[in-house]
Amino acid sequence: MRHIISVLVENKFGVLSRVAGLFSGRGYNIESLSVNTTHDPRFSVMTIVTSGDERIIEQIIKQLRKLINVIKVRDVTPMDHIEREMMLVKVHATSKTRPDIFNIINTFRGKVVDITGDSLIVEITGTDDKNKAFIKVLEPYGIIEVIKTGFVAIARGSKATPDYSKTS
Q1: Mean pLDDT per 10-residue section of the chain, whose length is 168 residues
Q2: pLDDT of residue 100
Q3: In angstroms, what is the C-alpha Rg of the chain?
Q4: How far apart are CA 135 and CA 137, in angstroms?
């Protein structure tokens, strides 16, 4: 089963390497990884998408909590949460196909960020299902390239916000 694990860490050198090393050293796969600072520059949040049964996820969480500079670890999956991924999609677009492609982009609430004589680059943000559907609809026009950010997720409600003053 797919799980989204949020890891609050001190914004220090080597933390990302230790987290990635934990996964590779134990044979766990990282399907998606997104990292950035929080509103407090002393901390960063890692959003890790991985797969496993409950026992494996529990083991990953316990091992993450033991790492140096890790403040808080939680599995966001069972929580009421919002998740998104941003994609940049380069698609073939001739003067003949552009109107149809623009209609698709508008339907999916995408944004054209670059236009050349024979292609468009579209920015789209959404859930995994929405992004996959967008790609599927654009495929007949000729997708040239797709770049994804990785997923980010946040629990809904003020009570689900991590307390930076407490440890795991």
Answers
A1: 96 95 94 94 96 94 96 94 96 96 98 97 96 98 96 85 51
A2: 97
A3: 19
A4: 6
Q: What is the pLDDT of residue 160?
A: 63
Matching fold, domains 2-78 and 82-153: yes
Cβ neighbours of residue 124 closer than 8 Å, sequence gap 6 or more: 86, 87, 89, 105, 108, 109, 110, 111, 130, 131, 134
DSSP 145: E
Domain ranges within the chain, ordered by starting residue: 2-78, 82-153
pLDDT at 158: 80
CATH, range 82-153:
3.30.70.1150
CATH architecture of 2-78: 2-Layer Sandwich (3.30)
Residue 124 is predicted with a pLDDT of: 98
**Dist. CA 102–CA 18, nearest whole Å:** 44
Q: For the chain, how are helix, strand and coil distributed in percent, rounded to 5?
A: 30, 40, 30
Alpha carbon distance 126, 114 (integer Å): 20
pLDDT given at position 162: 60
Query: What CA–CA distance (Å, rounded) separates 115 from 134?
Result: 18
